[in-house]
Amino acid sequence: MAEQAAHLKLDEIKVGFRVLATDGHVGKVIEVLVGTPLEGSYLGIRLGGWFGKDLYLPVDHVRTVTEPNVMLDIPRRTLEAVATRGRPRAFGPGGGR
Fold first, then answer.
1. What are the backbone dihedrals phi and psi of residue 37, each rounded to the nearest 5 degrees, phi first?
2. pTM
3. Rounded to an integer, what distance in angstroms lies between the CA atom of residue 54 and that of residue 38?
4. Regarding beta strands 42-47 and 69-72, do their DSSP bridges make them parallel or antiparallel, or are they unpaired?
5. pLDDT tens-place string over residues 46-76
6. What is the DSSP letter of 41?
7. What is the mean pLDDT of residues 79-89?
8. Which domains does the chain have, with CATH numbers?
9. Distance of CA 14 to CAs 3, 29, 31, 77, Å?
């Protein structure tokens, strides 16, 4: 998966893109955090509507990006197990790009 993420152009992912798991829609992109190889890079996803929760998924789980969709390589039920709630510490509080 890391090799797959290396070929992924993170600048193609825009806020508002739909996020699709292998078994359907999960939410929308709220930010893209691009870090060093040590920090990793993350996709901020809002699950649900206005009062949904925000998760940060390592970009290793992004399979493809075809505007306006980001396709993941995991099913919805796995998303919360591999993602983190809240921004990863390396990125501190505040917005990404």
1. -60, -30
2. 0.84
3. 23
4. unpaired
5. 998 777 899 999 999 999 999 999 999 999 9
6. -
7. 90
8. 2-86 (2.30.30.240)
9. 22, 7, 8, 24
DSSP three-state, residue 94: coil
SS3 content of the chain, % helix, strand, coil (to 5): 25, 40, 40
* Percent over 90 (pLDDT), the chain: 64
Q: Counting every residue, how long is the chain?
A: 97
DSSP state of 92: -
Show the beta-strand stretches assigned E in the chain.
18-21, 24-33, 42-47, 53-58, 62-66, 69-72, 84-85
In contact, 29 and 45? CB cutoff 8 Å? yes
Cα-based distances in Å from 71 to 20, 54, 58, 92: 5, 17, 13, 26
- How many angstroms separate the CA atoms of 50 and 73, rounded? 25
